[in-house]
Write a structure and sequence with these properties.
30% of the residues lie in helices and 33% in strands. The chain is globular, with a radius of gyration of 11 Å. It has a 4-stranded mixed beta sheet, with helices on one face. The chain has 2 helices and 4 strands. With 76 residues, the chain is α+β, with helices and mostly antiparallel strands.
Length: 76
C-alpha cells in the first residue's frame, strides 16, 4: 500500500459516477498529492486510466481483489 493524502470510496457506484467523483476529488488536491480510490465497478479498471489520460494525472498503482479495486492517483 502506498502513502496517500486523501481517500475516495466509490463502492457501489457504476459508471460514470466513479469518474465524476474522482474528477471532483482531484480538483481539491494540490500538485503531488495522492488520492486512493476504492471502487467495485469492474469498468473502473478501464475508465480510470482513460480519465487520467485526459487529465494528465498519474496512476501510481492499481490492484483488485474480491470485487474491490484500489487505485493510487498522483495529482499533476
Amino acid at each position: 500500500m502506498l502513502h496517500f493524502d486523501d481517500e475516495l470510496d466509490t463502492s457501489g457506484l457504476i459508471c460514470p459516477m466513479p469518474v465524476m467523483r474522482i474528477k471532483k476529488a482531484l480538483k481539491g488536491l494540490s500538485s503531488g498529492q495522492v488520492l486512493h480510490v476504492i471502487a467495485t465497478d469492474p469498468a473502473s479498471a478501464d475508465d480510470i486510466p482513460d480519465l487520467l489520460d485526459t487529465t494528465g494525472d498519474r496512476l501510481l498503482e492499481s490492484c483488485g481483489n474480491s470485487g474491490s479495486y484500489h487505485f493510487y492517483i498522483k495529482k499533476r
